[in-house]
Amino acid sequence: MSNENILLSVQGVNKRFGGLQALSEVGLQIKPGEIYGLIGPNGAGKTTFFNVITGLYTPDSGEFVLGGTPYRPTAVHEVAKAGIARTFQNIRLFGDMTALENVMVGRHVRTKAGLLGAVFRPRSVRREEESVEDWAHDLLEYVGIAKYAHFTSRNLSYGHQRRLEIARALATEPKLLALDEPAAGMNATEKVELRGLLDKIRSDGKTILLIEHDVKLVMGLCNRLTVLDYGKVIAQGLPHEVQSNPAVIEAYLGTPAH
Predict the structure, then answer these.
(1) Nearest to 53, CA basis, from 42, 34, 68, 38
(2) Predicted pLDDT at 111
(3) One Pfam family, short name please (predicted)?
């Protein structure tokens, strides 16, 4: 796979917590415009790896290249500037802000007004703020919750809160959208709607890294997958290749495939 066909390349990641080796030489390569799945049984290290990629944990070693440019995952805000936006398994919205305001906060990563501009609000800052509000409205429309723009986020349904988190992440104009268990807690109807939204995001040229426990959703949605177990990569490839891999079957079921 040539470097020109890679959006995110992560190689040789190691992470230790005290006496526990949580990740051992883990890596993946994600192509532009695909949904890439990161799966594994409980305790496999996928959340740790995800948190390393997105700057929540600092790795002990590893090489990270996004869009051809090396980046250092030492802080979430630095990773956001590099072009990775993430959501969390436990929803982290500003509960007392409206849906619109939540998305506007996400957009401010890409705005130019500094502290003085925010205080004195010259015409250029006011124009930029209007642009940010328009952008936020468009994103709420895009994810299907525009009519709830002025609802406080804590009063939205669970499924709509998940969509709002995705809209806020998209507001940063990321090169890579990293989603941590977006279907967690959703009912069957909400999962179908989520799949439709993720399909639309991919069709519009965005690239997605997805951690998800719902294997049916992952296998039906992802272009390619990495499977972790005990902090190591045990399989990588297309969904049908991964699903039939004996090491994956053993990791999930506890018995070797015959």
Answers:
(1) 38
(2) 47
(3) BCA_ABC_TP_C
